[in-house]
Fold this sequence. Notes:
Helices cover 69% and strands 16% of the residues. The protein is of the alpha+beta class. The chain has a domain at 205-286: Beta Barrel (Thrombin, subunit H), CATH 2.40.10.340. The chain has a six-stranded antiparallel beta barrel.
Amino acid sequence: MSPIGRIFIVLNLVLSAVFLGFASNNLASSQDFKGQFEDKRDEHDQYRETKEVELGDLTAQIAQLESSSSSLREQRDGFKAEMDRLKTDYETERRRNNTLNADVSAIKETLANYDETNRQNVQRLEQANSAVAEATSAKRDAEDAKETALDAQRTADEQLTAASKSIVDLEIDRETLRKANANLDAQLQTLAEATGTKLADLMPMPLIDGAVLQVVALGNDMSLIAINKGEEHGVKRGFTFEIHRGSQYKGQARVENVQAGMCSAIVIRTVDGQTIGQGDLASTRL
């Protein structure tokens, strides 16, 4: 046999031994791997069973969660619908509240107007009551004044009646007095002419200056004047006053009646063209 054949035989033996070793090793490894595989398979089966149980639980939980989610979605939709309804109600209530606020403002303004009107009415009522009270008081005053006026009228009528009677009596006395004065004047004139004495010297008179207060026509060209001097000024019955206005002489009057602060005198002489009037000056001496 050639060396190359022996080499190939040896190489085949070596390779066979190597293969046998490798196969033995591989078989042992395969046996170990098989055991490991079976262990892993059992472990995997157990793990799968466990996971299947967990998966079943999870599936049940998912179903329950889906049911819960559906319920929650329904609740959510219900809540959303309720929220939309509440929003709508809120908007409606807000508009209603705005309307109510406007109505309240209008009512407040109306009440304020009512209060102002009521206050004005109270003031008018108070003014009316005051006016009624004033009118009532004025009515009472008018009634009192009317009664006083009636009393005064009755008194005036009585005084007028008495005055009319007095005037008649005075006219009778005046006529009698005029005749007596005329006789006295004639007698005094006769006495003065017989004795050559002035009439003023027969009755001494102090200087008394006054003024004519009133002139009363008695008729028959006779006048009675009132002078603002009387007994308290020294005036006596029979005194004569010279009547004048400034430098204008008007006539003479003789005192017939004397009172405390005034006297009345009969005009016994007047200057032609002159009229004795109120405000003329009267003096016992010029």
